[in-house]
């Protein structure tokens, strides 16, 4: 801020100079100069006339008349010294108040309309960026208040405006977006950080987390792809398993969720305080699986992939239940996000498609599973699919996707 005030002083000084110059250097008094020139011209003309009149004998004492003419000329000369003193005094009386007024107006108007407090706050926040960033980067420390989050966002955006290649800054801004549930900011910031440093583990994890929380299925699938790539690394962050387990649980892919939670338990060991929490999560997933499997009016469908199947970058898994005669119109159907295979789903009356006819009305049935790559149910060219044998209602069904339309 010291530089700011120095610059304001320079600007105010320049303004004062422009005010003072016209007062210190007034325009020449043209009337006095014209009168002086006129008197000199009149004096010279009168001298010429006196010479002519003397030659004609009309003037007896030429020298006396010349002396009187000179005295008249001297009497008409203005007192410049007195006028200069008066003008200097007048200038001083006007100049000093004018300069004071310029300074007062400049700083007074800035105090009223210049938002000095906001500028000062902005500068203070920019100075406290390292401290606020440290708090945000340490989730186990003191949580940031809403006011601190706003201040940190302002400071980060200021820094990123001047340093757009700062991947850590974009990562922090993305985390703030996640904390505020501002997914547009979170995904946008994480994407920029990932573009700058695509090999950084924290950035990849943050980007995947932001995409995972998006309502767009394409973003969610991109997150799964990124996380699955991270699983193949020599070292896998515990949070990668956590995100994949959470996603699988939300998609009702309970076996995959259990698998990831068990992997986390192996990494942390039974002495870790989180081990018991993971055990409860595994028990919860198993509890959601068991009732449906035991329900005689539902079908448990385990879905796996054949070795030749190549998954599309995006798409959905469509599971449909048909009557035993293989009728094309499904009795029940459901769609699931394209994720990790194998996984298990439960089909029951809540998935029924035909009014007046429920899944529980069937005694025998066929289950078909298709990977739909374009979201159009009517389009099947190139889609992979699989079909079960005829099974009884309440049975466990295994379907392998290994055929292509």
Textual characterization of the structure:
It comes from Vibrio diazotrophicus. Residues 299-401 form the Cytochrome c-type biogenesis protein H Ig-like domain. The chain has 405 residues and is α+β, with helices and mostly antiparallel strands. It has 3 domains: 2-114; 125-292, Tetratricopeptide repeat domain (Serine Threonine Protein Phosphatase 5, Tetratricopeptide repeat, Alpha Horseshoe); 298-404. The chain is 59% helix and 12% strand. It is built from 14 helices and 9 strands. The chain has helices at 2-24, 30-55, 62-75, 80-113, 116-127, 129-137, 146-162, 167-179, 183-196, 201-212, 217-231, 238-250, 254-268, 274-294; strands at residues 299-305, 316-323, 332-337, 343-347, 364-372, 384-387, 391-392, 396-401, 403-404. The strands form 2 sheets. Strands 2, 3, 5, 6, 7 and 9 form a 6-stranded antiparallel beta sheet that branches. A hairpin with an 8-residue loop joins strand 2 (316-323) and strand 3. Helix 5 (116-127) packs across helix 7 (146-162), helix 9 (183-196) runs antiparallel to helix 10 and helix 11 packs antiparallel against helix 12. The longest helix has 34 residues, at 80-113. The mean pLDDT is 78.
């Amino acid at each position: 801020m010291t530089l700011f005030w120095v610059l304001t002083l320079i600007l105010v000084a320049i303004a004062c100079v422009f005010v003072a110059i016209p007062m210190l250097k007034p325009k020449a008094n043209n009337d006095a100069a014209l009168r002086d020139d006129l008197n000199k011209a009149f004096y010279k003309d009168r001298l010429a006339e006196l010479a002519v009149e003397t030659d004609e004998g009309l003037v007896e004492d030429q020298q006396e008349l010349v002396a009187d003419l000179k005295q008249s000329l001297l009497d008409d000369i203005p007192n410049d010294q007195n006028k200069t003193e008066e003008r200097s005094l007048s200038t001083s009386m006007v100049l000093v108040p004018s300069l004071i007024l310029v300074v007062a107006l400049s700083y007074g108007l800035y105090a009223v309309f210049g938002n000095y407090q906001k500028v000062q706050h902005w500068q203070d926040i920019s100075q406290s960026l390292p401290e606020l960033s440290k708090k945000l980067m340490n989730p186990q420390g003191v949580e940031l208040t809403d006011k601190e989050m706003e201040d940190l966002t302002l400071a980060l955006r200021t820094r990123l405006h001047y340093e757009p290649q700062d991947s850590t800054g974009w990562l922090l801004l993305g985390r703030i977006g996640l904390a505020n549930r501002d997914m547009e900011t979170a995904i946008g910031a994480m994407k920029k950080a990932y573009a700058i440093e695509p090999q950084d583990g924290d950035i990849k994890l943050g980007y995947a987390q932001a995409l995972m929380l998006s309502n767009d299925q394409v973003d969610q699938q991109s997150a799964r792809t990124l996380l699955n790539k991270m699983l193949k690394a020599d070292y896998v962050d515990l949070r990668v398993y956590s995100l994949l387990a959470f996603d699988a649980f939300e998609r009702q892919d309970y076996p995959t969720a259990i698998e990831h939670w068990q992997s986390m338990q192996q990494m942390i060991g039974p002495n870790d305080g989180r081990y018991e929490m993971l055990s409860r999560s595994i028990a919860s997933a198993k509890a959601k699986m068991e009732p449906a499997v035991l329900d005689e009016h539902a079908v448990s469908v385990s879905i796996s992939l054949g070795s030749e199947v190549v998954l599309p970058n995006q798409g959905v898994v469509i599971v449909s239940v048909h009557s035993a005669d293989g009728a094309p119109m499904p009795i029940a159907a459901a769609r699931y996000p394209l994720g990790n295979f194998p996984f298990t789903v439960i089909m029951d009356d809540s998935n029924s498609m035909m009014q007046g006819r429920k899944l529980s009305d069937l005694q025998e049935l066929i289950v078909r599973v298709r990977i739909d790559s374009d979201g159009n149910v009517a389009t099947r060219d190139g889609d992979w699919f699989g079909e079960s044998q005829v099974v009884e209602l309440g049975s466990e069904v295994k379907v392998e996707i290994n055929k292509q339309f």
